[in-house]
Amino acid sequence: MVSGTVRKNQLLLLLAVLLIARSALAYPSNADSDDMMLNDDYDYDTDEQSAPSPQTKPTGVVKSSVTGYRNRTLTTRGILGEDVVLKCDENITKENVILWYQDSKIITSGSSVVLPNFSLNPRNYDLTILKASPQNAGTYYCQILPQNIFVATKVVLGDHSLDVITPESSKSGQSSAHRLALLWLLSVGLALGLQLKH
């Protein structure tokens, strides 16, 4: 009689583990669409008949035929109300032209800053966000011409240093814990399944 009750409890536990594992596998995956767009091989060139814009905008990362092409994505964390420095590239020469953008808004052209609340270091073309506000959070692009190199920088701002945690990093932490819990549940289910066979 005891073994029948134990067997029923094991079967119920196995079913619960499998149900939890199934719901965990059905949980949607969180992928950063910006990184996916930056890392894909699609050429975003369009055949529009409209007049070209007088300023260059990074509407997508288009691969150049120049051999030095590369692009990187960085993350910079800053504190609201303080200056935040964004680095472009350590290999900039006098022959390069540097353009900085916030999303599609141009910030600098060469050594000229065209938007307020920004400054540019003329020696290394590092962009400084002056007294960062919530509107300054987002993605910035440094374009190095003529090589057409893009350096994307995600700017994350918080009230103080402990607040500067990106949602992506917390999602990846949740995702890792989620995977570990799923593996644990599957191993428990497998162990219970083997016990039921014997």
Q: Which ranges are low-confidence, i.e. pLDDT below 50, for 5 or more consecutive residues?
A: 27-69, 167-172
Task: Report the CATH architecture of one domain.
Answer: Sandwich
Beta-strand percentage range:
15-25%
Strands, count: 9
Fourth-tier CATH superfamily name of one domain: Immunoglobulins
Give the CA-based shape. elongated
Q: At the first level of CATH, what is the class of one domain?
A: Mainly Beta
CATH topology of one domain: Immunoglobulin-like
Helix tally equals 3
Structural class: alpha+beta
Alpha-carbon distance between the two ends: 17 Å
Could you give a short account of the major beta sheet? Answer: 6 strands, mixed
Q: Describe the strand arrangement of the main beta sheet, using strand numbers.
A: 1-9-8-3-4-5
Could you spell the SSE succession in H and E letters? Answer: HHEEEEEEEEEH
Mean pLDDT: 71
Short description:
With 198 residues, this protein is α+β, with helices and mostly antiparallel strands. Helix content is 31%, strand content 25%.
What does this structure look like?
Keywords: Signal. InterPro entries: Ig-like_dom, Ig-like_dom_sf, Ig-like_fold, Ig_sub. Residues 36-48 have a biased composition (Acidic residues). With 198 residues, the protein is of the alpha+beta class. The protein has a domain at 63-166: Immunoglobulins (Immunoglobulin-like). Helix content is 31%, strand content 25%. The chain has three helices and nine strands. Strands 1-9-8-3-4-5 form a six-stranded mixed sheet, with no helix packed on it. Strands 2-7-6 form a three-stranded antiparallel sheet, with no helix packed on it. β4 (105-109) and β5 form a beta hairpin. The chain is elongated, with a radius of gyration of 25 Å. It starts with a helix and ends with a helix. The model is unreliable at 27-69 and 167-172 (pLDDT under 50).
